[in-house]
Amino acid sequence: AMEKSYMSVFLLLVALSCALAKDALKKETKDTKETKPKLPQTLSRGWGDQLIWTQTYEEALFRSKTSNKPLMIIHHLDDCPHSQALKKVFAEHKEIQKLAEKFILLNLVYETTDKNLSPDGQYVPRILFIDPTLTVRADITGRYSNRLYAYEPSDISLLFSNMQKALKILKTEL
Amino acid sequence: AMEKSYMSVFLLLVALSCALAKDALKKETKDTKETKPKLPQTLSRGWGDQLIWTQTYEEALFRSKTSNKPLMIIHHLDDCPHSQALKKVFAEHKEIQKLAEKFILLNLVYETTDKNLSPDGQYVPRILFIDPTLTVRADITGRYSNRLYAYEPSDISLLFSNMQKALKILKTEL
Question: Which residues pair with B136 in a beta bridge?
Fold first, then answer.
């Protein structure tokens, strides 16, 4: 039963669309075999070492709901140059780092099994916002019609304004 | 749809059975609001800083399958004294730390949605092994009939021998 449930994970990984995704995964696996990290691995992974990052999607959902803060999920890959370039700009952008404190934060290298997190496919970098009502804010998008949740480094101001938009909590109507 | 899928997560959390679980969660949430961590948060969380830890269950399953290493999942809570006591013994046990290198490792503070990871309920500390064929090794148990996957610090030798048992990879018969 378990094998069936999770086989989809492996199939989905193949669909990741950053050009270097597959090579990156191989390389990373190789590196971890050959050399050990000298410092413990971090949850921030360089997206903001001073921010508080959640470890898993389940934790992030729980914390978003209980704290009433929106959740920001960054899908990325260590050896994807687009992800790395966005990370650099994100980490160095003081206003974004400050605004990020108002969010529950999660960065993921591996996709979850929740299809709500890939409204238009799985690719990296891909940033999604989730309201504390646990509604995916599919309306908060970037500039690219074929990859609605992708951002280039030059889109950092749009990302900032999208973060501001996400902070306006949805009202539950029921 | 999403709200429904994940509402179970919150209900499950309530079922955690370490006596201090609920207080611990509250305290942790409070602490993170009041003070920021000076060092980036780590994936090891003190269970072995020199070991390589995966971040999520999806990552761990993928790495177990592709590397043909068994997966060891430690469920724990930061402010649960039983978890803390086991962690101390685990981290200081040289043979266990050495043997742990042969596993894909994951420690989780929040439960996943996979019921296969709670064969006899959700409690902490709770250690489960998964074969690279993605079969939960429900046969690898500790001493306590009411909590088959719990270990006390005095059970560390049993845990060591259970790790050795888990390293004997199951053969797929099909």
Answer: B130
